[in-house]
Amino acid sequence: MKETFDIAVFPGDGIGPEIMAPATRILKGLAENAGYRLNLQDCAAGAAHYAQTGESLPEISMQVARGADAILLSAMGLPSVRYPDGTEISPQIDLRKALRLFAGVRPVRIFPGQKTPLAMPEGKEVDFVLIRESTEGLFYTQGCGEVTENEARETLLITRETSELLFDFAFRLAHERKAAGRGRGHVTCVDKANVFRAFAFFRSLFDAEAAKHADLTSDHAYVDATALWFVQKPWDFDVLVTENMFGDILSDLGAGLMGGLGVAPSADIGVDHAVFQPCHGSAPDIAGQGIANPFAMILSAAMMLEWMGLRADNPTVAADGARLRAATEAVIGQGDVLTGDLGGRATTEEAADAVIAALEAH
Ligand code: ATP
Ligand code: MG
């Protein structure tokens, strides 16, 4: 059984290094206690690195990322540092393209005690996963759409190859969740198949994949109705899978339901590689003060352990991921040790220490 895992660690910019430090401290502690090995290798990349060297994602960092079992990334980019064409430094997007990370995984969780803008009915819990296709769709012509004086065009691309990989991933995830006692083994395709032929194609590929999974159920929903249901009955969702732009918008709506960006983790997954990172950015406005919320980063690290453990058939690693998630959720739910963005007064280190203390009970 695989017991040694190489992790490429990108501390990044702004609050990035401040939230990565407690996350790697926790990971090292878990591995030491359970007897598996995590080789954590720091990789330079980001806006500060670009300002110093003229490179935002050095080849050596790319090589380490390619060779790693997983990539743990905090946040990259600073509004003050830009490429000559004026766009922001975003090596995370370069990684997504280079490693073909087609599935953006955004878990949305509201559990007892957690602050949310929703009026939660008694006994309901929100626990679903939004999967956003991350390499094509309406982002396909990103940065190179055609613009003349009088009109502008972008292309929406849906390919059979990527969609088949995406839907296969979605149904496997629904299966894993069901086996773990979360979710009911249901996948919803979110599209706009009534208006666009590209989405009718997307839906037909979804249906072909659904037909292979007799043990799971599926349905379709239009994206506009889905936005309504995010607010009215998100407890009914299990696994949702959608196109890039729709997923971009719905994932921020999901983070809003969870009570903010500071608690929203994510993963970008391909066939051979995966990046785990919080949904939020580098928050330069609070960098250097030791007050950034580390929970989204720690929850991303937990997702990484669960994913690596399942993939490598190492149940100890997967179980540590589930424990770390449960411990972090317990701290958020109790609400005694929260950072400023969640209405508390804890420092980054105090919040991380509370998770370590909660791990003992999980
Ligand atoms: P990006 O373009 O990289 O997504 P952004 O400008 O959209 O970045 P963020 O960097 O995510 O935004 O920050 C948005 C706001 O949320 C900021 O005011 C920031 O202080 C706050 N914020 C984001 N992440 C955290 C965190 N982990 N802890 C506390 N506050 C945070
Ligand atoms: Mg943003």
From TrEMBL:
EC number, UniProt record: 1.1.1.85
Q: Which SMART domains match?
A: Iso_dh (SM01329)
A Pfam family cross-referenced in the UniProt record is: Iso_dh
Instruction: List GO molecular-function terms, semicolon-separated.
Output: 3-isopropylmalate dehydrogenase activity; magnesium ion binding; NAD binding
Q: Name one GO biological process term.
A: L-leucine biosynthetic process
PROSITE patterns from the UniProt entry: IDH_IMDH
Question: Can you tell which superkingdom this protein's organism belongs to?
Answer: Bacteria
Keywords carried by this UniProt record:
Amino-acid biosynthesis, Branched-chain amino acid biosynthesis, Leucine biosynthesis, Magnesium, Manganese, Metal-binding, NAD, Oxidoreductase
Domain (Isopropylmalate dehydrogenase-like): give its ranges. Answer: 6-355
Q: Which InterPro entries match?
A: ICDH/IPMDH, IsoCit/isopropylmalate_DH_CS, IsoPropMal-DH-like_dom
Q: Does the keyword Flavoprotein apply?
A: no
Cofactors needed by this protein, per the record, are: Mg(2+); Mn(2+)
Q: Does the keyword NAD apply?
A: yes
How does the annotation summarize its subunit structure? Homodimer.
Family of this protein: Belongs to the isocitrate and isopropylmalate dehydrogenases family. LeuB type 1 subfamily.
Name of protein: 3-isopropylmalate dehydrogenase
Biological classification of the source: Bacteria, Pseudomonadati, Pseudomonadota, Alphaproteobacteria, Rhodobacterales
